[in-house]
Design goal:
Strand 10, helix 6 and strand 11 form a beta-alpha-beta unit. The protein has 267 residues and is α/β, with parallel strands linked by helices. It has nine helices and 13 strands. Strands 9-8-7-10-11-13-12 form a seven-stranded mixed β-sheet, sandwiched between helices. The protein has a four-stranded antiparallel β-sheet with strand order 3-4-5-6, covered by helices on one side. Strands 1-2 form a two-stranded antiparallel ribbon. It starts with a strand and ends with a helix. Bound molecules: S-adenosylmethionine (SAM). S-adenosylmethionine binds next to strand 7, strand 8 and helix 5.
Length: 267
């Protein structure tokens, strides 16, 4: 059961618990469900399900990739389940670096989620176990596309939603670079979008929000940030790879049309 408010939430009925352990950072649980397939929970919150992961991962990765003319070096911060990594590797990129803080998330997902094992065998994939914020502060490397696949702004992920982190992202983007970040639930995290919009507009020439559905995330509508100093989210520079199940160029354009409730918050 995941609680969204003290008296509402989402439940899965199953007796197939595959893993339940506590790492230095969080409680990690995986179970098998007859409709959703393998489901990953961290600290009691759904992170990904086999059935609907593509809604979230395609919308996190492809809008940024579509707006860069030739992305070669990609950085993913968080995302230890490997769903974003799989999408990024579907382009002819040179390398994708995944920086995940919790090695136990990687271990568990490698064992139970079918795609991570395959992606980590790809020679272009590099895995770094570290805090994404520290990695950006210490590394001298720059990237064409940075994707922030964090959890909600509590625990180790809190830092990945803060002003100083986005300042570091700006420093680590190559000219022409684009970053996309998950920002949270339209229903539950609305109050944080106003402040975020203000500081992002201070850092980047282009600081836009976009939305997409994710059936198993709270409220069902998810919000993402698109930031860049040059890329216009309405100027699509490349076609998406074949075989996607959610994202296409029409969905891309539509995702940047904000509902009034969000427009009001972000200006
Ligand atoms: N988008 C998903 C959601 O909102 O439910 C999150 C998926 S992904 C599993 C989030 C990952 O970010 C987790 O594996 C977590 O360990 C990792 N993470 C949290 N804080 C981090 C940090 N400071 N640096 C790097 N990875 C971090």
């Amino acid at each position: 059961m995941e609680f969204h408010t003290p008296s509402t939430g989402l439940f899965f009925r199953t007796d197939k618990i595959l893993c339940s352990r506590t790492s230095a950072f969080q409680k990690i649980e995986v179970f098998d469900h007859d409709f959703y397939g393998k489901v990953l929970f961290l600290d009691g919150l759904v992170q990904t399900t086999e059935k609907d992961e593509f809604y979230y991962h395609e919308m996190l990765v492809h809008p940024a990739m579509a707006c860069h003319s030739s992305p070669e070096s990609i950085l993913i911060i968080g995302g230890g389940d490997g769903g974003a990594l799989r999408q990024a590797l579907s382009y002819p990129v040179k390398h994708v670096t995944l920086v995940e803080i919790d090695s136990e998330v990687i271990e568990v997902c490698r064992e139970f989620l079918p795609w991570l094992k395959v992606c980590l065998k790809d020679k272009r994939a590099e895995l770094v176990v570290a805090d994404g914020n520290d990695f950006l502060a210490q590394s001298q490397r720059n990237f064409d596309v940075i994707l922030v696949d964090s959890s909600d702004p509590v625990g180790p992920s809190a830092v990945l939603h803060q002003k100083d982190f986005f300042r570091k992202i700006k420093k680590r983007l190559n000219p022409g670079g684009v970053a996309a970040c998950q920002a949270g639930s339209l229903l539950l995290h609305g109050p944080s979008f106003h402040g975020k919009s203000r500081f992002l507009k201070g850092f980047f020439k282009v600081a836009r929000f976009y939305v997409g559905p994710v059936p198993t995330y709270p409220g069902g509508t998810w919000v993402y940030n698109f930031v860049s100093d040059t890329a216009d989210p309405m100027e699509l520079k490349r076609k998406p790879p074949a075989g996607l199940r959610f994202y296409n160029q029409d969905v891309h354009r539509a995702a940047f049309a904000l509902p009034n409730v969000l427009k009001k918050l972000v200006g």
